[in-house]
Amino acid sequence: MAKIDVLFRELIARKGSDLHLEQGQYPKLRVHGSLVAIDGAAILTEEYLREILSEIASPEMWRRYEAAGDLDFAYALGVDARFRANFYRHFFGLGAVFRLIPSEIVSLEALDMPKVLKEFGDLRSGLVLITGPTGSGKSTTLAAVIDYINRNYTKKIITIEEPVEFVHKNQKGIVTHREVGLDTASFASGLKSGIKSDADIILVGEMRDKETILLALTAAQMGILVFGTLHTNSAAKTIDRIIDVFSVDQKNQVRTILVNTLQGIVSQQLLKSADGARRWVAYEIMLRTPAMAAIITEGETAKLISEIQLNRAKGMILMDDCLAELVRSGKVKKEDAFMKALDKAAFATKAA
Question: Which domains does the chain have, with CATH numbers?
Answer without folding.
Answer: 5-101 (3.30.450.90), 116-317 (3.40.50.300)
